[in-house]
Structures are given as C-alpha cells and as structure tokens.
C-alpha cells in the first residue's frame, strides 16, 4: 500500500465521521439511548473486525470509511499477521458489549428494572430539575422538535463554537496521528511507540485538572484560552528548538500535545452549558463534533512525507490554526457577555416579546450564558 492510500484511509475516517454525526444524532432521538448505543457498538465491533480481513487498499478505504506493542508478538498466530490481530482484539469484545447494553441499560429511569418506584421518581425529578427552563420540551408528543433543529443552523454562536473546535481538533488529530513519526528523530523504531505513552498520560492528567478547575469556577472561556495558549507555546518551541536536542524537542511536543488535548473537552462543556433545549443541545453537540472531525482530514496534508524529519512547515500550520482558535475564543466570550448585558436591561415590552417565543431554549431572556 502506498503512502497516498494510507493518507486517504486516514482522511476518509474523519470525512465519514462528519457526514454521519448529525443524522446519527437525529436517529438517537427516535431510537432512544439503549437501542442507539447497542446498535452503534455492534456495528463498530463488526466493522473493526472486518478491517482484519482487507486484502487491498480499496477494501481498506471502504471499511475505514464505515468505521502496539503486544500485537507485535502475535505475528503469524493462526495464520494472521499481527496487525490483523489488532483489529480482532479491538472489535470482538465490542459486539457482546453492544448486546449487553441493549439488555441492561435503560433509556430513562422508568425503564430500568433494578430501580424501585421511589428511586425512579427521584431520578426523574433530578433530571427535570437539571434540565431547567432552557431545556423545556415541545408541547407535542414527538421525540424530535424540528423547530429546535432549525434553531441550531440559524444560531450564529454555534458556528463560532464549531470554528474553535475545527481548529483545535485538527491540531489534536494531526499530533495523534503523526506522533510516532514526529518521535522518530528522537529514538529508534522499537522505542518510538513507547515514547508516546508518557505524552498521553500527562495529557490525560492535564485534561482532568483543567476540567476540574473549570467546573469548580463555572468558567470556561479563560480555561479554554489558557489551554490553547499552552498548545501555541508548544508549537513555537517545536519550531525554534528543533536543533537543540531530543530532550527539548520531546518536552515541547508534550507541551503542545497537552494543550490541544485539554482544550476540546472544555469547549464541549462550554457549548452544552450554553445551548438549551434537548433537541437543540443534542444536535448542536453532534454538529460541532461532526464538523470538528473534518479537521482530522487535514493531518496527511499538514505533515507530508517530504517535510520530515523536522516537520517545520507542519508545526507552523498547526500553530497558526491554534492562534486563530484562540482569537475566536475571545470573540465568542465577548459576544456572550454583550448578550448577557443586553438581557439585563430589556424593557418590559421587549422582555415579554422574547419570552413569548415558542420553545425559546437558551434564547429566553431569563437565561444567562456561562462565560
């Protein structure tokens, strides 16, 4: 398989992710969490197993579209190469998990068999209280509010969230996909993948700390800007210190990776706190995640083979993308602050007019956006 085929396989995964995210979110509203999650797990496991049996680049592209240290020692076991065993080990356990999910996971408290009536009522009340004014359901008995679907695509604030997400996730996917390639100059082939493990561990810790701090202070924009700034600093160091030795390159890569890794959960939390209405919120999350995955398709273009081993051009592109996301973050915060101030000083007539909107969601004048 040529490097071009491999790059297409990587890009098609993110392309299909973007295409099916919004229809999948709408399907969730019709099927309910139990059926939807079970079906997703079974299909995910089946497609992953199918990747173990591809014979050429065309088959890989098809299966990739629908969708390792230990496996190195499984070469030729059962007549299968180690990379085929990787997909089998990843995919086979997921299928029975999907069946178990359908049997034991309830969509709402009333459908759970192992809760008594008092516990079901308590959980239902907690969910209703947590939903609040901005998440009132449509008066009809339908599962899906098409009015709220329309709200998603006419709310300009959601597009600002999406623009930030595309930038951050593009950089995140670039680093995740090509991290072994970026680490090649630091060590030999056998140690490259082992060197990526500490980066993932440190990034996970940073992600948890950033999320905890944001939750405690009920503040998202400055936390997000801080993480994006850390990522930008990492890329600046990667550009300027590429000839200063392996330690400097490794540390700067870790800084960039931690910043980009921690930013996306903060952004997703910020979005869900500021989008009201069950249908609107669910579709907004799907829209953001789906569009953000388009950034992953840029990875083969950002780090081409002819730019190795320094990848200076790729680092400059990623740093520029992060800088744009950082600027949009401050623009979005300022817009939300201005809207909060506007709602405070609404005249009585204007307040009644905006409050009378059918299914106002987060547009209700009593709602204040989290900054």
Using the CA coordinates, give the radius of gyration.
23 Å
How would you classify the helix and strand content by structural class? mainly alpha
Q: For the terminal residues, how far apart are their CA atoms?
A: 48 Å
Please write the string of helix (H) and strand (E) elements: HHHHHHHHHHHHHHH
pLDDT average, as an integer? 76
Strand content: under 5%
How are the SSEs placed, and which strands pair?
Blueprint: H1 3-31, H2 33-50, H3 57-66, H4 82-91, H5 94-104, H6 117-131, H7 146-154, H8 156-183, H9 189-217, H10 221-240, H11 246-274, H12 278-292, H13 299-302, H14 312-344, H15 348-355
Helix pairs in contact: 1-2, 1-3, 1-12, 2-4, 2-5, 7-12, 8-9, 8-11, 8-12, 8-14, 9-11, 10-11, 10-14
Structure description:
The structure is a single chain. With 371 residues, the protein is mainly alpha-helical. It has helices at residues 3-31, 33-50, 57-66, 82-91, 94-104, 117-131, 146-154, 156-183, 189-217, 221-240, 246-274, 278-292, 299-302, 312-344, 348-355. Mean pLDDT is 76; it is low at 68-77.
Question: What is this structure, in a nutshell?
Answer:
This protein has 371 residues and is mainly α. Helices cover 72% and strands 0% of the residues.
